[in-house]
Amino acid sequence: MAYTWEPKWEVFEVNLDGIKFKTCRDKITGLIACPICIHAASRCLGEPEPRNYVYENSFFYSAEDLINHIKNYHIGELRKKLEKLLTKTSEEEA
Description:
This protein is an alpha+beta fold. The protein has helices at residues 40-43, 63-93, and strands at residues 9-16, 19-26, 32-33, 59-60.
């Protein structure tokens, strides 16, 4: 029984409901990686690895699950930060 997993990445294109982007998919398991969490550009798309990037491991069985993750986790967090900034700005103006 293996305690570690070394993914064999391949480029995977998501094209669903007008949403289109590239990310990484493991050749063996078929797991699709979140391109933001693992920084797909440096993992499988040939870009240099960024400094000080906080990697997370988020993998999905379907493109639908991945898109839901991006909408709820990444876009949701950005929305919260924007709302906080707008609240702070309006308080300073008052």
